Amino acid sequence: MASDLPCIVYFFFLLFPSSSVAQRNGNVMVGDSLTAGDEATPWLSPAEDFAFGFRQLDKKDLYLLAIWYNKIPDKTIVWYANGDRPAPKKSTVKLTAELGVVLNNPQGGEIWKSGPGNGEAAYGFMNDTGNFQVANANGEKLWQSFELLTDTLLPTQIMEKGGFLSSRLSETNFSQGRFQFRLIPDGNAVLNTINLPTGFPYEAYFWTYFWSNTVDSNSSNAGYQVVFNESGYLYVLRARNKREVLTPGRVVPAAENYHRATLHFDGVFVLYSHPKNSSGNESWSVVRTMPVNICTDVRGKKGTGPCGFNGVCTISTDQRAICRCPQRFSLLDPDDPYGGCKPDFPTQVCAEDVPNAPEDYELVQLTNIDWPESDYEMYTPYNIEDCKKACLQDCFCNVIVFREGTCWKKKLPLSNGRQDESVNGASFMKVRKGNYTLPGPPPIPKKNRDSLVLVVSVLLGGSVFFNFVLVDVASFAFFFIYHNKFTRTPQVERAVQSNLRCFSYKELMEATNVFKEEVGRGAFGIVYKGLVQIGSGVPVAIKKVDRFVKESEKEFKTEVDAIAQTHHKNLVRLIGFCDEGQHRMLVYEFLSNGALASFLFGDVKLSWNQRTQIAFGIARGLLYLHDECSTQIIHCDIKPQNILLDEHYDARIADFGLAKLLSLDQSQTFTAIRGTKGYVAPEWFRNMLITVKVDVYSFGVLLLEIICCRRSVDTEVGEERAILTDWAYDCYKEGMMHALVENDEEALNDMKKLERFVMVAIWCIQEDPNLRPSMKMVMLMLEGIIQVPVPPCPSPFSIAS
């Protein structure tokens, strides 16, 4: 029979030439493909119970390569390939002979591949069990989706010892989350949290049948497989065919019902069933949840529970986690209630000369709330009044819990918070008196203020503003026909000379549907999506400059003229402007891939090669602004949000030349200086002469962010790594630069370029502007044309202080 299979495969090619027919029968032939965003039918299983293809994510034009229940209205996803790297629109998935299933972006770059195993793939098959398989011409299995575990187990699927399910990061974010279901070496199936950057597992909060330290892997009772059988029963299989069943009682028949076991993003492992022939109104029925109470069962000194640090977990009626923040705290990420909380007031600091004395704080009572793993001190026997007094006089203390004559002191960050009636005793949170909201980080001691001014500028940048990007692409050909569209006034004559179109306020009102669609806002004003008519509709971004310098009516026109005279492939092009009465607006081309920030700090990550090319592009754009323009332009606000990417992921600098348009009384992003804190050069704080070297400094910070794919300040990675500029120099000095690009194999294989880029960045962030290179020198060093000298410590002034 095996010898006949090559003929059978060939017969498939003859009999089913169209991909739609192949899909109806579950078969996928080498060369078949799907495109993200197209309306093509996904690859279906024979009974059409399961589908393999692209699912659009909440983020516009990003797609997940997935398998889902095809006949259920909510199309529940049960497997996915590229959770950490969503695919842009027009990406393709293709079955190839050499590489198996391959997912490529629109430019042909590889996002993910299955690999063919040992042999050449001949066809694929979407099975009615939800398993997509790739086989060779002899029918031998080369790869199957069941072997690549995600967050769900399906009937007939087996998890071997050492295997694990990983939760998603959130309900709509399919990146790896903080929870795992594992079959560990001792044969026990457990649920545990992990350290996300390293994957290191923390203490388990659920065990199937043994405490993990009581059984070794050689025990006759040790489990060696987690089995989800075809009848819908989930169990741990032990020696001599003994079973530890996780499915309680009898289950509904598998012939009439779907079954799945999913590890949710909040750490709850749930067994479900769903009728196959439903009317469309039924939802998944819960068979069992593990653990019974995720809020109280997750413990441990390291990591945190489902609600993040400082969060409070309450169990819902379906035994899932509901998260909220305690009094006077707010969400760290307003869009993620499970991501933890931050105080809305300056917490007390243990330092001299700081205006946060004990009398500035008070205790507010909490109801049935505790963070049992955050204790650092215990007094017993004690009374509640002395417990309160002890916390108010202790600069480390943030919370107290008084229970049965014992006083427990806790400090931030608080972990594994829960609100439950089983929490006995009285708990209190220490907060700043009055209705005090937090405008920035806690005050810095005066004696250290000068030495830490750079760090302060970084820390203040965490809460500034929405980025005003997504500025879009228009054809360059339109720039040469604008002058035929309007009457030649003196203002228009100047616009013609600069290849800009002068729009009326009425035109831009119509183009934006009365400024209906806001796409961002920042220090320069609000940005609206628009469609201008130039032969056909052209999408643009229209920026209302609502804080221009009022002292000079000519200022706006002068700066617009200066911007209009710039022509470089690494700068965003200005199409036109409006200067009518009190209305000042700029009309830009629209770039399809948005801001660099979303690719550095978001879910979609760029490759090392893409990132280095982006760095080159930014450097070339700055070199042009500094040295090659007819009028030198200092950008003053270089940051990832102001670097836009076109359809080929080439970098374009946005908002250059706008700094002079700003008044000096702006709040939020700008104070008496110009620039975004975290990227601002130290000379802004020292009344020194401002030169193009402020852009060099900002570029250095941005270059480190491009290298490491992280923010310049990230308090969640630990105190040692929180300030990227400091940590990067420490890594360089200690010969540990590989730590900057952990898990980035492409960067780790290009250590010479990595070292060169880090050294250039350190030169750029020197506190002394005279030590910083020019952008011309930066370009030569980045390209390896000249050797990069050993950089000195970038902060000698701070160290000396």
CATH fold label of the largest domain? Transferase(Phosphotransferase), domain 1
CATH class of the largest domain: Mainly Alpha
Principal-axis shape equals: globular
Please, what is the CATH homologous superfamily of the largest domain? Answer: Transferase(Phosphotransferase) domain 1
Task: Determine the N-to-C terminus distance.
Answer: 82 Å
Helix content estimate: 10-25%
Largest sheet geometry: 6 strands, mixed
Order of strands, widest sheet: 37-41-42-40-39-38
Unreliable residue stretches = 1-24, 210-218, 438-497, 661-672
Could you please describe the fold and organization of this structure?
By secondary structure, the chain is α+β, with helices and mostly antiparallel strands. The chain folds into 5 domains: 2-147, Bulb-type lectin domain (Agglutinin, subunit A, Orthogonal Prism), CATH 2.90.10; 156-274 and 283-291, Agglutinin, subunit A (Orthogonal Prism); 312-432, no CATH class; 476-588, Phosphorylase Kinase, domain 1 (2-Layer Sandwich); 601-800, Transferase(Phosphotransferase) domain 1 (Transferase(Phosphotransferase), domain 1, Orthogonal Bundle). Strand 43 and strand 44 form a beta hairpin. Helix 11 (608-628) runs antiparallel to helix 12 (693-708).
